[in-house]
Amino acid sequence: MPQSHRIAVLPGDGIGPEVMVEALKVLNAVTKSHNFTVEHETYLVGGAAIDATGGPLPEDTVKGCEAAEAILFGSVGGPKWENLPPNIQPERGALLPIRKHFGLYANLRPGVCHPALTHASPVKNELIPNGFNVLCVRELTGGIYFGQPKGIEERNGEPVAIDTMVYAKSEIVRIAKVAFEAAMGRDKRLCSIDKANVLSNSVLWRETVEEVAKDYPEVKLSHLYVDNAAMQIIRRAPDFDVLVTGNLFGDIISDEMAMISGSLGMLPSASLGKTTESGGNFGLFEPSGGSAPDIAGQGIANPIAQILSLAMLLRYSLGQAAAADSIDQAVEKAIGAGFRTGDIFTGAEGEIKVGTTGMGRAILENL
Ligand code: IPM
Ligand code: MN
To answer: Which residues have a catalytic role annotated?
Structure first.
């Protein structure tokens, strides 16, 4: 009997639904070639859910995700819903509750600049002659995003806003372990990013990461203050292997990594929680870029980030590493053969400009 899995598919808004179509074609192909099955049910999320049900995260969607081993997520948000109160806006009202509800504490965001695509990076090409490949590990369910108290209240006759940054040692230990494990599978270099010259949170963070490091003697650990890290990443991205940091700093640093990699349309991400019965991690997998409302519906969005998110899902949640590898390789081959969506097209010799389905087809042909 072939192994059978179940995932929840949440295409969302903007380019989400178009790129998801291509990812599902790839899923269909790899399940056949690698002899396993994946049942996939589609659910509403974000603006699409607001329009249909009044809220960005319907109960039906949460139930569907609970019944699955992983969530394949598109993207949410757009100008249509921008003026709603912040806590029911698609991004905040869907993503943050999903992260908390499913305990998705470990956010893996690869920042990869393909050697053939360095021209698309805004960084001077002499600084990244062979591109770079950095993995940002961001803590995702703690820190200032979720700490209590939080809110705006009246004090001495004026509004005062309060956000609280809280990290328990156990939260730091578990994310540090994820980062060290990731480093062990890569180039064994880990840079922890904090603000230990100012924040108590960061003092505990640094001490704890140092403690966890004792279990990983092969990994070369370094530390940077976040302000300095923001500079060093621009100046010498190829020097970094794995980064680990808290929720707020990780939000910012991972966007910086994504920007200098050249195309948001190429980067997947994984948000992982607890280990499931099948031995994988429950997780949510989504492109790092947003819903790109400016290009939605035109058939020109790059589907690679969504397809690589599927590969991460197969690897981390379903334990189907061989299928994941074959997807990664097929994407490499399509890029190597010159296929380019608009975001990575330069007009150089050998480049073939394609749209969303054209790129999907080029990848499928290489599977
Ligand atoms: C991200 C986003 C979210 C975050 C927002 C939309 C809540 O920016 O996934 O990086 O800040 O985590
Ligand atoms: Mn962000």
So the answer is: 145, 195, 227, 251, 255
